[in-house]
Amino acid sequence: MPIDYVAKRTFQLLLIVFIAVTFNFLIPRMIPGDPVESALQTKIAVSGSVSVDVQAVAAAYRAKFGLDKPLWVQYLNYWGGIFSRDLGVSLVDFPQPVIEKIQAAVPWTLGLLSLSTGIAFVLGSVLGALLAWPRAPRALHILVPPFMLLSSVPFFLLAIVLVFTFSVVVPWFPPGGGFDPVSILRFDMQTVLDVLYHAVLPALALVLGSVGFWALGMRALTISVLGEDYITFAESKGLPPQRVFLWYGMRNALLPQITSLAIALGSILSGAVLVEAIFNYPGLGGILFTAIAGKDYFVIQGIVLMLIFALALSLFVVDLIYPLVDPRIRYHA
Amino acid sequence: MSVDGDREVLRVEDLRVIYDTPAGPVRAVDGVSFSLRTGERMGLIGESGSGKTTLGTAIVRLHRPPARIVSGTVTVDGRDFLRASESEMRQLRMREIALIPQAAMNSLNPVMRVGDQLADGILAHEGRLGRRQLAERLARALAQVGLPGNVVGRYPHQLSGGQRQRAAMAIATALQPKIIVADEPTSALDVVVQRQVMLTLGRLQQGLHAAVLLIGHDMGLIAQFADTIGVLYAGRLVEQGPVEQLLDSPRHPYTRLLIDSLPTLDDKKALRGIPGLPPSLLNLPPGCAFAPRCPYAFERCGTETPALQAVGPAQVVACHLYPEHSELPPIGADVELPLVAPAAEPEVAVP
Amino acid sequence: MSAITAMPAGGRRSYGTAALRGILRSPRLSGSLVAGLAMLGLIVLLALVGPRFVNPRLAAVGAARPSQAPSAQYVLGTDSQGRDMLTIMVLATPQTLRIGLIAGVVGMAIGLTLGLLSGFFGGAIDAVIRIVADSLMTVPNLAIMVIIAASVGHMTVELMGLTVAALAWTHPTRSIRAQVLSIRERSYVRVARANGESELGILFREVMPNLVPYIAASFVGAVSGAILAAVGLEAIGLGPNDVHTLGTTIYWSEKFSAVLRGQWWWWGPPIVAISFIFVGLFLLSSGLDRIANPKLRLRT
């Protein structure tokens, strides 16, 4: 792995995170209105106590969190908070630290996302490549219109339809949650199966929503690769068609397909968050949904930050995969 | 290895290839016939759009849609390539005919090591080979083109342009074919490397005693290599003959103009090109396709397509000037106006 | 690929527009383009004309008996709060389309400007624009928009559009920039430059006309992405709270567990409407892509 490649990618990662975090910091402060105050008002309204002076409490909050200091000081504090893993406390579940909520949620999102993206990407890419190969069974082509249809419908809408069909119409799968609420989470087979059982519908929503996209993309890339000169040359050697298709065709189409994955990761993550919200899945999406409903501002901010980091890291990982599959990057000319 | 040096190995008869474009059918190869004997070097010259690459790929049935072979035969050692089944073709490719492609930068699989690309062709035809045996074959194939053994472990992008071209030649000829079709093997290479590649091709040909069909547009380069030259214009063979005869006294006006356009070191004169543009293969003018640009054109050229006729020992030409004339009249300092109207602008470029 | 022909006697002509005319004169427009236009036309018509024919009071809480399945009187049934679904759908669809349009137009305007500047002038401008656009494109869109939307106190349709537009410009910018970079090197631009045309003149007479298909395709893409983003935000509760939109309808249906209660008439129609819009936009953008990219056309 060339060292300058890794260094460049690391730098890009840090730059992206820097810009995104700055945006995250600036935006709320550029919009008039005070979210903290409105969140407090909501909470007080919900809890019913009338005798609290909202303004005073809000002022106390602002002082505590340094929201009354000059902008650049706040900015530094913001970064300080990020490095010390202090993202504030939940306004709804006071005084639970935001970071705790997030840490509990991350493994669920990670699991759901890797499972579904992995399945969809592999399945979609293989199907897509076959669709581009003139020697593949013609019958495969009936998949194209449903693929096009499915890939234009957003994940979470699919999720709703799936819940209705497979939880209500036929009660095969649970309509929400990550695990059976009355059980205790342990590391045993029963728990694992339970978790998987609850993951089926959300994962299905994500897989169905993206497999068409991967397939159609791979199909286009494979068509393009099959027109290259090295395919003709390979055929002129009299190689068996399967070999040409796999090692000369698909192997080369895989490279831009992986790039495609990197580009799409952002929207996949966004989609997964929404799916989790629909399913009340205890990942980042689930807690985001609750936080928005309760106007739990710091939790929202924390989740957003987490999403940015998660994505930047995933991109970094995909970038590191790339040299492994493309020798032109692995060995500079 | 054949002892019989005068055996015919390749015979192309009346080959016609059409491109089905949205604008209509394009006659890229319009009835081309020629033959090659063992060890013979033939050069096929044409401008871009003359159908030469189409011809090269059609011979091994590797042409791509929208190209379509409509008629003709390609006979190799008695077997008609065009009527063989797909699996028979796969057997015949590489073993009987090798295709050395244009611009080897794009012909080598960028994600596969050169050694693997050398090996898979050999293994596809010969089944499993012992590791040592295979390694020897690879080394030998590389040595034949003057490449060192360590190329086996390299990826194409790690080689220079000339090395890549030679690697492609090694890969194509690893099974010692009888016929080599080389399609512009030196385009996109600089002059020094071009010479190197051509020398390698020559050595390869001699070592294998193979017949070579060298396709290109560079008359100078091809003339140095070939024994016989065929000139393609608008999908047809307009002249063919031994290289010395062709160079000394070209019979077809197009050939003459091609030769004249070559800059020479001894005779300093103004560069001359060929006036006009190659015709649109979609709308070929009636009669001789070259007539609009021909300094000798007359009435008959605009109505009747000339057929190939013999004009000397082993030389044929398709031109209405013959057999009345015995050779081309000299072209004056001013090119005379053609008597036939110039053709419309070309619209379709044929690879 | 047109050969450069000799100069016509009448003086200068714009080779750029000639190239554009060549593209538009191409063989019949594809089926997807027509289908997409038809679908969208239908929805837009409904959105424009529909609201005149319904009584908005039926969309208020308590207008009818709650949670009724579709019947002759209430064709799409009523929700848990007694609102007539048909009225809601007719009122909500145009709002969603409005959000998409606002975001699309604003995003496209920004994208076009930045893309042109970035591609045509290059250098530092290009570097800055590119880095910012890339960074925003790599972060999950939802994240940024959630922060914006959560910070806005009172969300309206217009603000929703602007929220989405904040990120909608990134793709058009990159796409237009890529096109400009490629057009900039084409022969007719060089010819125009050699003829002494000013840089701005070239920008408007040679580059822009050839961008039209890409602008159209980008615009459709931007609107599509905007509607997707908006519906997503609305579905988790960040939508406008003063009007009905397709996304907020879904949110309320989730909030009242309409899915679990089998009240398919509440969340079903918005989903169908959204899918219809998306499929229409998708077909339209495929059709436009074919016009913009001639190689796709030949492949049928």
In brief:
Chain B has 351 residues and is α/β, with parallel strands linked by helices.
Write the layout of secondary structure elements.
The complex is a heterotrimer of chains A (333), B (351) and C (300).
Chain A: H1 3-30, H2 35-47, H3 54-64, H4 71-83, H5 98-132, H6 144-152, H7 155-169, H8 189-226, H9 229-236, H10 241-279, H11 284-293, H12 297-325, H13 327-330
Helix pairs in contact in A: 1-12, 2-3, 5-8, 5-10, 5-11, 5-12, 6-8, 7-8, 7-10, 8-10, 9-10, 10-11, 10-12, 11-12
Chain B: E1 8-21, E2 24-37, E3 41-45, H1 52-59, E4 67-76, E5 79-80, H2 86-92, E6 97-100, H3 104-107, H4 114-126, H5 131-144, H6 161-172, E7 179-183, H7 191-208, E8 211-216, H8 219-225, E9 228-233, E10 236-242, H9 243-248, H10 253-260, E11 309-312, E12 315-317
Parallel strand pairs in B: 3-8, 3-9, 6-7, 7-8
Antiparallel strand pairs in B: 1-2, 1-4, 4-5, 9-10, 10-12, 11-12
Helix pairs in contact in B: 4-6, 6-7
Chain C: H1 15-24, H2 31-49, H3 85-121, H4 123-138, H5 141-151, H6 157-168, H7 170-184, H8 187-194, H9 199-235, H10 246-255, H11 264-292, H12 294-299
Helix pairs in contact in C: 1-9, 2-3, 2-11, 3-4, 3-6, 3-7, 3-9, 4-7, 5-6, 6-9, 7-9, 8-9, 9-10, 9-11, 10-11
Describe the sheet with the most strands of chain B.
Answer: 8 strands, mixed
The percentage helix of chain A is over 70%
Main interface: chain pair and counts: A-C, 54 and 42 residues
Q: Strand order across the biggest sheet of chain B?
A: 6-7-8-3-9-10-12-11
Strand content of chain B: 15-25%
Order of helices and strands of chain A: HHHHHHHHHHHHH
Radius of gyration of chain A: 24 Å
- How would you sum up the major sheet of chain A? none
CA radius of gyration of chain B: 21 Å
Mean pLDDT of chain A: 83
SS element count, helices of chain A:
13
